[in-house]
Amino acid sequence: MTPSRHAFAAIVGKDLRTELRTMRSLPAMVLFAITTFIIFRYGLDRTALSGSLASGVIWTTLLFAAILGINRIFLPEREEGGFDAFRLAPVDRPVLFTAKAAVLFLYLAVLELIVVPIFAVFFLQTWEGLLPLVLILLATNLGFAALGTLISSMAVNSRARDLLVPLLLLPLVVPLMIAATSATGPLLDAGGPSYDKFGTWLLVLGLYDGIFCLVGYAVFDFLLED
Amino acid sequence: MADRSENAIRLRGLGRDYGDRPALAGVDLDLPAGTSLALLGPNGSGKSTLLRILATLLRPSRGEVSVLDCDLPNDAWKLRGKIGYLGHEPLLYEDLTGRENLEFQARLYGLPREEAASRIDSDLALLGMSRRSGYRVSDYSAGMKQRIAICRAVLHRPSLLLLDEPDSNLDPEGREAARTLIGRSEELGWPAEGPVTRVVVSHEPEKARAESDQLLELAIGGVQA
What we know:
Chain A has nine helices and no strands. Chain A has helices spanning about 5-20, 25-45, 50-70, 75-80, 80-90, 95-125, 130-155, 160-185, 200-225. Chain B has about 220 residues and is of the alpha/beta class. Chain B contains seven helices and nine strands; from the N terminus they run βββαββαβαααβαβαβ. Chain B has helices at about 45-55, 75-80, 100-110, 115-125, 140-155, 170-185, 205-210; strands spanning about 5-20, 20-30, 35-40, 60-65, 70, 85, 160-165, 195-200, 215. A five-stranded parallel β-sheet of chain B has the order 6-7-8-3-9, sandwiched between helices. In chain B, helix 3 crosses helix 4, helix 3 runs parallel beside helix 5 and helix 5 (about 140-155) packs parallel to helix 6 (about 170-185). The longest helix of chain B is centred in the middle third of the chain and has 14 residues, at about 115-125.
């Protein structure tokens, strides 16, 4: 068997190289997020948001932008035979899950690096809450990445994958979104961040991440069977 | 009948259904290690299905399948890395170059970097793709993709080669080069674990008879002829 770290690095490197070359996922995710911010700004007729409303706007936007990336994460494997090539290789199959989840995590991190400052410029009067928000973003990204990779691998072989991904993902992602929005709201209060139940929600996010990382790792082998 | 361990492939009553439709039925075969088998039959006779079962990419619906002393599908994981498979699809990433695809393959198979580079260079040269290996696969013609796909299938020097119409899309020069790489592996010094066994799907019975040790002809419905 090829050492898992070598196979992991090969898959992540291949995906990042392909994305840098083709720009098929990230630009669409960023453009979607910025457009949504503009719509919220004029739709709500507000130049400043705070608290739970700000939290709702940022997480609604990130969730649907993430779905664009999740939909595409296994497309090269499906359309260009990468699944078969991987199944023939002497590599533990869950390595493909961890590598794809890592790639999705990186996509989400880059997306947030671009669009969260834009959100702050558009809507926030104080930026003090952004630093602790990074923790929430990273913890939520891990959950998105694990669940998104799992759902995408289940849906990719279906012709209706564009429908299946949100259909399967959205109900399962509700606990993650409740924890993320609840933790984010107090951080974006107009008077500055408050840390009420911050640790509790971070723990909930951590539990969710742990569950779906383990489930994905455990069942991925079966998902690759014919 | 040859002993089980002498056979690279042993099939007994192999069958595979797609829903209610049988694609293969009652296929028996003993293929000694180091020999070559030509799979013949009309379109829809189950040749590609048989090849995918042997490659561990499909599960049989019934029957016994033993490949390189591993019973399928239970021991399929033991075969990973020992099979070189060339199907109808080239299994190449379109947005990577031909060389990048082979380097990715080499990393998946855990080949040391220097050895991988040496094999890639020699195989690309043999198949006349050295100069064009830096182009993206999406820019290749079907024949060029096939040449790189053949390089991909043999890069890890497998003990069992499963090739579905390896000549397709190749010009005469490409066919000759592919035949050299596929057919003379021992002369080329492949460090495979044992003698290389080959199963090749063909639509040219005369050529297949001349180049193979055994023939297996399948009929429509996947029944052994």
